[in-house]
Amino acid sequence: MQFTPQDSVTEKRISLIEEVPADDILTKVTGREEVSLHPHTHNRHQIIYILSGTLHVEVEGSSYFVTGRHLIWIPCGVEHRLSSNNSQISLLTSYFCMEHVGEDCFSIYKTDELVARNLQFISRHELIERNRTPEVFAFAMGFFGVLPHICKRTSFPAQPFIIPKDARLLPVLDYVKSNLNQDLTIERVASYFGFSVRNLTRLFTNSGIRFVHYLNYQRIVRGIEILTDEAMNIEQTAYEVGFNSPNSFSRVFKQITGESPSDYIRNL
Q1: What's the sign of the alpha-carbon dihedral 34, 35, 40, 46?
Q2: Residues 141 and 187 grouped into a single domain
Q3: What are phi and psi of 124, to 5 degrees?
Q4: 171-198: per-residue pLDDT in tens?
């Protein structure tokens, strides 16, 4: 693996995971500075619990947006990429080997207070060695094993967004995400990139994406990131992400997430 100057520290942290003995559990409490990782794999299973902030996870050709109080299960050997746009984020991460795993595919779960407290207890031990702390090791492995049975899979905000394979569409999607506060229409975006509306619409359709849905989804995702950072109130957030009124923002927010912005903030 080649290290570049800007990410060598992060890459070295990843490589340390591979060096932990298979019988031990490595846990980490991470912050913003450790959530910008290119696609990589581990030789062990990984559990990420989001204490605060939000996380973007790319895995198996799909992109997931995951908010606080959710748990991400990444099986051994599954390539994934992690990133966050939040100024403040806190994660509890555990790396472990398990011969018979409770979950052998990438999954995202909604958790409750009991799950959170147990994961916080486990994360107090940076390295859980089977021979030195057998009781804690047995508890942690037993708890990891039952997690898929006591947690519920979640839909939004963790619904997958399929990353299109057509390279022509990628800069268009990036442009939309970078200009959410503008008055974006498919006509204006097509003109900016030199497409006809018909051709750009075909590109979206062939990739299984609707322009308006993608635009609204990204605006709500960005709105959640802003609200999570407590940088703005609901009205300010609505205008910041491109809605013409707080009512429009609240209506689309509920359509996509199933709850109002005020309910979302209250549940944080």
Answers
A1: positive
A2: no
A3: -70, -20
A4: 999 999 999 999 999 999 999 999 999 9
